[in-house]
């Protein structure tokens, strides 16, 4: 499967590893195709520099070792009629749609109410329960 993950998951995986996160990343990297979008990578760098500046090198090393396909986030609004509480989340969802991924995995519960056939939107827990 093709899977795009959200910014908060990248930050958690790199800076706050846990057995659950390690299991999740191994499932994705061994059996699926991981996608990250350009918007998310920019957001990762902004957040880490603002909140955890001493960990920026760790984040860069993590991203260099991570095997993923880069999706360029579209600048054009392709989400007519889709309402998300946080407008900063539109680029992530647009990237998932443009990349035509099967799954968009996020820790952001604002995506849970969207009625979309593709991509399927899941949390890490839902992904592990369904696909592990």
Which descriptors would you attach to this protein?
alpha/beta, 132 residues
Any overview of this molecule?
The protein has 132 residues and is α/β, with parallel strands linked by helices. The two termini are 13 Å apart. The chain is 48% helix and 14% strand. The protein has one domain: 3-Layer(aba) Sandwich (Rossmann fold). A 5-stranded parallel beta sheet has the order 3-2-1-4-5.
Brief description of this entry?
The protein is α/β, with parallel strands linked by helices and 132 residues long. It has six helices and five strands. α1 (7-15) packs across α3 (38-51).
CATH topology value = Rossmann fold
Main sheet summary: 5 strands, parallel
What radius of gyration results from the CA coordinates? 14 Å
Roughly what is the average pLDDT, rounded to an integer?
88
What fraction of residues sit in β-strands? Answer: 5-15%
Q: Based on the coordinates given, report the CATH architecture.
A: 3-Layer(aba) Sandwich
CATH class: Alpha Beta
Principal-axis shape equals: globular
Which residues sit in consecutive blocks of at least 5 with pLDDT less than 50? Answer: none
CATH superfamily: 5'-nuclease
Could you estimate the helical fraction of the residues in percent?
40-55%
The tally of strands reads 5
* Number of H- or I-type helical stretches: 6
In total, the number of domains comes to 1
Multimerization status: single chain
Return the structural class. Answer: alpha/beta
- State the strand order across the main sheet: 3-2-1-4-5
